[in-house]
Design brief:
The protein is an alpha/beta fold. It is built from 13 helices and 7 strands. The N and C termini lie far apart (about 85 Å).
Amino acid sequence: MRNVALDLGTTKTSYCEVFQDEVVKRATVSSVESLQCLLGPKQPPARVAIEACREAWYVYDLMTSWGNDVLLVDTTRSKQLGIGQHGRKTDKIDAKTLALAVERGGIPAAHVLSPHRRELRRWLGVRRALVEARAHLVTTLRGFAREQGVKLPSCHVEKFPANVRRRKLPPSLHSLLEPGLRTLETIEPQLQDIESELAKLCAVEPVVQLLATAPGVALIVAASFVSVIDEAQRFHQAHEVESYLGLVPSENSSGGHRRLGAISKKGNGYLRTLLVQAAWSLWRTADRADPLRQWTDAVAKRRGKCVAVVALARRLTGVLWAMWRDGTVYDPETLAGNQARGVRRQAQTLEYQAAALERAARKRSFKRSKPIQEVTTL
């Protein structure tokens, strides 16, 4: 099978095919559809590597439909393949490096989302863009008012235009804010339409309804979690999911000393933000008897609120993954039981370590106290 790599760009795509560590064919096209003469169904099949990017899903589907074996390369690991070495990074060099990696094998492939989860993720992306635009616009309008000594009272963003218009503002300030207020009024119904579409998409995803039973986790958080993870079975344990979303501490343990830092912040940043927000909501609104809230209270007393909430977001990630894996709703009693068993195991481990240290200490003490026999030479 041929070994090919594509470097996808905004205006052009670089094609590189290698055989026995030598480049045998190059091409530069303005669209991937133009590659049909090289990778189309009438050509011999090829292993085609592409880096994960905005149009990667479309190119993946197109190349697969032509009968090729497509490898989606994780961009966070592209340096391991030699991309960008020696400060040289061009489309042609990247395509050649990637093609040689295909021939060698062992490429760290990225997960390809299922078509339905891609659609869910697109609608979530549109909603995110509108929500961020709305928040930015409200902040800007408040700043204009403060410039003229007017402090607009806090309120729900949906009620912001009506509350501003009820206030007696100077005519000049009112005319300045009015275009932004009208824009906010047009964003709101569009958001409602998008959330209706999201509700339809989530209605055929039972796992979204399942995850939404966890405290602090609403429909948007659950849908975002599903759209990023896609398949619970591709992870073996909760720690892998937490690491995938960048919620585990960064580590530098070279030299025999273990050094832990802030969370790594790898993976999908938007989902990580939503999980932290869900953690704040859980901590504030969950029942005081909830095991997650009790655990967070204990961490907050030792480490502070911010550290406790990030730790809760990490723990919540593991809980959501386990619910998805087992197909169960959120059950605080089961979680409390698992938590208790974990504490017992930890206590047993600490007890075993303490006993081992005591035995070692007694052994060293015995060696020091043993008298030294004098040897007499006859």
